[in-house]
Backbone:
């Protein structure tokens, strides 16, 4: 199984500790909402390598922040005022929501004025077949609901404490499946330990 990580952060003014909205265009992966930035690691067959690739991109973002008088904030919830939301709606468009939920939840439990930030875990199962003399590569389907339910159970406290709901995922056009229920302040070491154990033999 190949795993990749994306982690969302709020951007704060390093002097005033005020939320920076909209997110400046100096960042390589600003969120479509104009509120968050994303660190993106390279996908890997090894969970440890995938996490430390994410950490490398976090360092790059942190350098950009320091250069511009900002800090990255891994708080999973942030209040965004109605005035700021109206201003953002004029300049940014989040697009159509494509996520689904294993249990029928339609959203997290945050209040309307609270913006959420999370860690998204992307899974693919690379497969190849021989067709005559040709080798073809594709991402095959697999039993992701079972794995995601196990992740929901192991991280139940973190999900509950940050007003999130379990079971959120998104199917990508290239065959990836993205688990989207974890807040952005989850321990990376816990993720390594849990996924290494759960993916044995996958």
Residues:
């Amino acid at each position: 199984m190949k795993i990749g990580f994306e982690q969302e952060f709020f951007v704060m003014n390093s002097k005033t500790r005020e939320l920076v909205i909209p997110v400046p265009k100096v960042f390589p992966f600003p969120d479509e909402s104009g509120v968050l930035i994303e660190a993106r690691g390279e996908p890997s067959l090894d969970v440890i390598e995938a996490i430390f690739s994410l950490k490398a991109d976090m360092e790059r973002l942190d350098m950009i922040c320091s250069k511009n008088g900002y800090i990255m904030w891994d708080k999973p919830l942030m209040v965004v005022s109605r005035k700021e939301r109206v201003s953002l709606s004029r300049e940014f468009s989040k697009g159509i929501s494509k996520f689904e939920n294993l249990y029928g939840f339609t959203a997290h439990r945050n209040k309307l004025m609270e913006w959420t930030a999370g860690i998204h875990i992307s899974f693919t199962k690379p497969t190849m077949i021989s067709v005559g003399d040709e080798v073809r590569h594709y991402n095959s389907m697999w039993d992701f609901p079972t794995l995601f339910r196990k992740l929901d159970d192991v991280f139940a406290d973190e999900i509950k404490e940050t007003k999130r709901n379990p079971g959120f995922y998104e199917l990508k056009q290239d065959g990836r499946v993205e688990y989207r229920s974890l807040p952005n302040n989850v321990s990376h070491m816990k993720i390594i330990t849990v996924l290494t154990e759960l993916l044995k033999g996958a």
User: Anything to note?
Assistant: The chain has a mean pLDDT of 90. Residues 2-198 form a domain with the Creatine Kinase; Chain A, domain 2 fold (CATH 3.30.590).
